[in-house]
From TrEMBL:
Keywords per UniProt: Mitochondrion
Protein's recorded name: NADH dehydrogenase subunit 9
Matching InterPro entries: NADH_quin_OxRdtase_su_C/D-like, NADH_UbQ_OxRdtase_30kDa_su
Annotated ranges, domain NADH:ubiquinone oxidoreductase 30kDa subunit: 32-147
Name of the gene this protein is made from: nad9
Length: 185
């Protein structure tokens, strides 16, 4: 690469820098994402022309619950770069589909799984869950069993949706462990 990553920090407003092996990761502000992606894509010294992935992460204990990582590839300079942004549950993020056309699928997937809404996204739709699905399954506060279950009803000749009912009641186990019985002897 023609320019060092230390020069990037001097020019662009980076909150935090992380280093994973030889790959650099920059934490940036949400409202600057589109501008920084345009710089990295079109500047002759960077040329990160390929968006390889967008990933969502959920940290419910943090003030800014969600983190989104954008992974870029510069084929000309054989370099990879990761940009991360953090946001809360109610703040939407601007779509980057106008900068990278392949971002549409990943943005729909993140909305479907985490509930993070992308502004100016032309085709925000559920990809991995049913149309009537309620909730966002990759959030840490989503119940493991889900809210509804689907099954095929032979009498009605169609798929029916029913609320989940757990068959086992809550139990309290108050047994003495084998180690505790040895201490009493």
């Amino acid at each position: 690469m023609l320019v060092s990553y230390h020069d990037i920090v001097k020019v662009l407003p980076v909150i935090q820098i992380e280093l994973y092996g030889i790959q650099h990761c920059f934490l940036i502000q949400v409202h600057l994402l589109k501008n920084i992606l345009l710089i990295f894509k079109n500047h002759f010294r960077y040329q990160f022309k390929v968006l390889t992935c967008i990933s969502g992460m959920d940290y419910p204990e943090n003030l800014y619950r969600f983190k989104i990582a954008y992974e870029l590839l510069s084929i000309k300079y054989n370099a990879r770069l990761r940009l991360k942004v953090v946001l809360d549950e109610i703040t939407p993020i601007n779509s980057i589909e106008k900068i990278f056309a392949g971002a549409t699928w990943w943005e729909c997937e993140i909305w479907d799984m985490f509930g993070i809404f992308f502004l100016n996204q032309a085709n925000i739709t559920r990809l991995l869950t049913d149309y009537g699905f309620q909730g966002f399954p990759l959030r840490k506060d989503f119940p493991l069993t889900g809210f509804t279950e689907s099954r095929y009803n032979v009498i009605q000749s169609r798929v029916v949706y029913e609320n989940v009912e757990l068959a086992q009641e809550y139990r309290i186990f108050d047994y003495m462990s084998p180690w505790e019985s040895l201490q009493q002897s």
